[in-house]
Each structure stands twice: as C-alpha cells, then as structure tokens.
Amino acid sequence: MARTADQARFEDLEVGHSAHFSKTVTEADVVLFAGVTGDFNPAHVDEVWARESRFEGRVAHGMLSAAFISTVLGTRLPGPGTIYVGQTLRFKAPVRIGDTVTARVTVRELEPERRRAHLETVCTTQDGTVVVEGQAEVLV
Fold first, then answer.
1. Domain tally for the chain?
2. How far is CA 92 from CA 9, 48, 123, 124, 133, in A?
3. Which of 36, 63, 95, 108 is deepest in the core (most CB within 10 A)?
4. Nearest residue to 100 via CA among 121, 123, 126, 122
5. Which domain does 44 fall in, by range?
6. What pTM does this model have?
7. Could you tell me the CATH number of the domain that includes residue 118?
8. Is residue 54 part of a domain?
9. Residue 102 and residue 78: Cα distance in Å, rounded?
10. How many CB atoms lie within 10 A of CB 79?
C-alpha cells in the first residue's frame, strides 16, 4: 500500500520530538463518554453521590484524559497512520468538568528495524497537575 502525503514517516522522527493536544472537558464530554463506553459510574454522572465520595464532586473518566494521548499519536506525533501497540497508564489526580487537559507525547526511543517508537505520555491540567502518565509503543 502506498503512503499518502499526510501519513507519518518514521524517518522524520527524532528522540526528543514532542507534540501536544489540549481540550477543556465539558459536561457533554463526560455524558457522551459514559454513553459510548457504558461507564455510568456515579463518580462521573451523579453529583449527589459524587459529593459524598473521596473526590467531593463529579470527576471525568480517567480514560477520557487517556484518550487525548491517542489524539496526539494519531493526528500529530507520529501522526496519521500510526498504529497503537501498547500503553501503560498511571492515574495520578482527578479531572473535573471545566478543567483543560493537555496530553503531551515525547519520543524516548526509536527502533528503526521494527519501525517502532517508544514514547513518554503525560496529561496535565491547566495548573500543571499531572493527571495521567505512562509510556506508549507505536508502529509508524
């Protein structure tokens, strides 16, 4: 299959390259994510219940923030055509409706013979709080 002009090129990657994506999490994002995934945990969708929880109010799904990492991988770095091979995640802090989450991906290691990239992944909120961190492996 021929490469199209907008596909990621392994040859263009270098250790240290990074890219990011930012999104302010809305009520609609949380409700739609619950609907798509079927995760109606009251921590996400029931304010009365969530106020009595350890978070003292509703929080966005952790996987919603993690999905922003996928956005970076598939649209920015490495970019279109990238195939996710693996991801580790650590959820460090809650995200609330109204928080702006920035997902950043940084190239840590390249395997030219396998066309694989190993990446550091981190999501932070507008005040710099790390909410998700991990590593990804992709096929470029």
1. 1
2. 32, 24, 10, 10, 8
3. 95
4. 126
5. 15-139
6. 0.91
7. 3.10.129.10
8. yes
9. 17
10. 18
